[in-house]
Inverse folding.
């Protein structure tokens, strides 16, 4: 295990053209010239995965998952080979490795496989010969030797898993933004780049809609103690370090504000308020692998009936509605309402644990702007609210100011 | 070993669009519905390999061969996955296999590897479950588990090798022409499709410039006794069977006429006519892996010096000239002349073995049209001549008529 090793992951937009691939090669070579051992993990060139997926859907309404994995994995194989060729072209010896060659073994859940183990012996041997290793991200093999993929953003997870397996100094996630911000800078102009953020906060940011890192990669980094950095593929500036809480000297109460427009709300009116009804509602959804996020059950108002509201992702809305309508008799509700014009806004910070009143100040700030809160959910370090989608930007700016996050 | 198995290979132009892939899927399904076990071998979609190769060359003057193989093999993986998905979409169960998964093990010569063995156990198991097997052509793995490729047209060889390993009834090579013709129909309008041709003739046709089949695939089919058929990917007409000589009832003296414009002529004037000089000339060319095809040494005319003429492919011309100029002192020639405006025209037929005068009638026919023959080479079943390129079409039409091949 080299303690001199750095893992660098480059996303699709960083590899979107041959010019950009050359740029990445220069950046990798620079690290190696500075004396580092470098293992690179690459995504497919921007747009490639979507293009392949669209082709599959044109050929079949429901493309076989095993064949889809074989298809999609080609994107990362191509970019790993091209980056390795570009490195050779600059006199920097490199070896491209596929998921199988890097020993990334997964379970058999095609299109969203989970890593079972990494046998990185070949990568270790190659690093010893002073070559850069360029790994095709997003992919592994199952026990049968079939290609599997790790789901959208899976290259982040490949990178963290390899960094953990090889005991790398740090795992640098190079992307088209230069770090993690207090809020999306495209919406909140006063958003600031965070120098450090805790794993827990990053996890909440990622799962609440910030698209910087795949949620699973953060979970894995936290579990395995991999030091993560999110930084630019193009500029030479330091990014955001994702670290343990004890590495953060001065804790902010709120570190960041995330949002997701990928939400839809379903309300079942006139549900019988009796034991077992929740199981009747959420059972069919679970059977259809539909994830339910926020849930609110109103107080029973008339004759033992109540309303139940919950959220699912936009992708799942149609299937969720169909599943519930097919069970209408069984569940026994009066009416089903759905609303796709909603957004979830979340304030996140480990400091909440020791500070009371964060939720209250959030509700107050939103109320002052006339923003109605539809659903609320909280965790130890997060408060999320569902609002009408048209209020998203206003809510984000209001909260960013209210929690003192605006850049000076 | 199923004796009910048919191997079908589809080339890049047959898979050049999603519509065409659907067409191929229909054709495969039809064979399966007729009760056949089907193993399909696919090339990359038309243009894909060239596109990837151009990218590699833009990133490096001399792309690493190992990485180039990883890169290029993606094209066939994509088309195999897409065809398998299309088959599923039509209710025809299929499994796509990569070179590794079909057990195609090669030597370590990246970009032009040779097959060492095929362990087709997985394909056999899949066929037993009544699935179509869709193999990515052109690729295998070496002993280290690295991807190798079999050179241009390598999918033909993959198909024949799999047909041999599995004891298939026949190996059908589906392409954009509907068979092997007596001559290129784009040039000779009266060219006829051959119902049958011998392996030896097909081998000469392929190596003399007919682009229907990769030479190595014919060699392998001949050696392993695989019945080959060349036929259309688009039309439902029988093609050309490539068979043993004893399967041909009525032998034509000349079966076909091939040509190649990919030729260049080099003449060394004033070479010392003494033992060892040929080795001095061809040694440096062999060292540079430059294949020399036709060779003519003139009779010594003055003071023990002679002229020596030979041909190389266009690709190799610059390197051949450079190699010979660097050894000018050592070889001792007066002048080097090169000419890229030449073409090789070959008449081919196993019937030549028992018929005298084929070469003579060739020279006579060409002379009558005023076509000058620059170099001649012969084999047991072939006579080739080098002519000025501008005479190619005239030479082909003249010979086609002279040997009685014109369609009535």
């Amino acid at each position: 295990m080299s303690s001199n090793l750095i893992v660098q992951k480059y996303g699709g937009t960083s590899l979107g053209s041959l010019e950009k691939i050359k740029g990445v090669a220069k950046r990798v070579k620079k690290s190696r010239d500075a004396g580092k051992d470098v293992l690179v993990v690459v995504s497919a060139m921007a747009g490639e995965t979507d293009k392949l997926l669209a082709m599959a859907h044109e050929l079949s309404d429901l493309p076989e998952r095993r064949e889809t994995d074989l298809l999609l994995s080609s994107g990362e194989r191509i970019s790993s080979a091209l980056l390795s060729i570009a490195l050779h072209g600059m006199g920097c010896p490199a070896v491209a490795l596929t998921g199988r060659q890097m020993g990334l073994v997964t379970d058999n859940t095609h299109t969203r496989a989970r890593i079972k183990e990494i046998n990185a012996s070949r990568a270790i041997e190659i690093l010893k010969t002073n070559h850069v290793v360029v790994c095709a991200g997003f992919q592994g093999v199952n026990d049968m030797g079939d290609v599997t993929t790790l789901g959208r953003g899976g290259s982040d997870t490949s990178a963290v898993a390899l960094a953990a397996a090889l005991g790398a100094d740090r795992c640098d996630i190079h992307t088209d933004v230069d770090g993690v911000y207090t809020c999306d800078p495209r919406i909140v102009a006063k958003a600031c780049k965070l120098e450090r953020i805790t794993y827990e906060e990053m996890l909440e940011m990622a799962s609440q809609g910030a698209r910087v890192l795949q949620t699973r990669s953060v979970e894995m980094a936290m579990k395995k103690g991999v030091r993560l950095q999110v930084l630019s593929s193009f500029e030479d500036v330091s990014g955001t370090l994702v670290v343990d809480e004890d590495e953060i000297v001065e804790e902010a109460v709120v570190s960041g504000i995330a949002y997701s427009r990928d939400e839809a709300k379903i309300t079942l009116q006139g549900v019988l308020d009796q034991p077992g009804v929740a199981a009747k509602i959420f059972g069919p959804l679970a059977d259809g692998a539909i994830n339910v996020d926020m849930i609110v059950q109103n107080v029973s108002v008339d004759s033992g009936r109540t309303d139940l509201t919950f959220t699912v992702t936009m992708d799942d809305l149609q299937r969720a509605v169909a599943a519930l309508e097919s069970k209408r008799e069984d569940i026994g509700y009066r009416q089903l309402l759905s609303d796709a014009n909603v957004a979830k806004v979340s304030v996140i910070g480990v400091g909440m644990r020791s500070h009371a009143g964060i939720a209250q100040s959030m509700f107050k700030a939103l109320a002052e702007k006339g923003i109605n809160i539809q659903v609320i959910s909280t965790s130890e370090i997060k408060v999320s609210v569902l609002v009408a989608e048209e209020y998203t930007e206003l809510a984000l700016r209001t909260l960013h100011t209210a929690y003192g996050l605006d850049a000076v």
User: Anything to note?
Assistant: The two ends of chain B are 44 Å apart (CA to CA). The CA atoms of residues 12 and 202 of chain B lie 21 Å apart.
